[in-house]
Write a structure and sequence with these properties.
Blueprint: H1 3-14, H2 18-42, H3 45-61, H4 65-85, H5 95-98, H6 102-107
Amino acid sequence: MPYSKKLTQFQEQHKENPMFVVKLRYMDMVLTLLEFIHATRDEIWPLHLSSMEGLCQHFFANNRLKYAQMVPLYLAEVKRVIRTSGQSSTRGNSVSSKVKCLFAASVSNMHWNT
């Protein structure tokens, strides 16, 4: 039996357990955060955008409404910049410097030394 089938079966068996549901949601949030960090550091814009969309639901669930309100604006701005500049998902492009949304300045303009 493939791993994904076993995992789905395990989740179905334990979905009535409230503690299991909480831990499963927490694991999903942590994996989404790790995906977001990886995509931001390596400037993989499609993955960055999809993980940001995934984080948005956690912002709502955890009552982080300021973030939840800014995410759609940020996503629209980055998608506009990518569309108008003709740049895609390559590393090292200048999408982060062209985004004018203030929310973006705190996330995508950061550069980490690895």
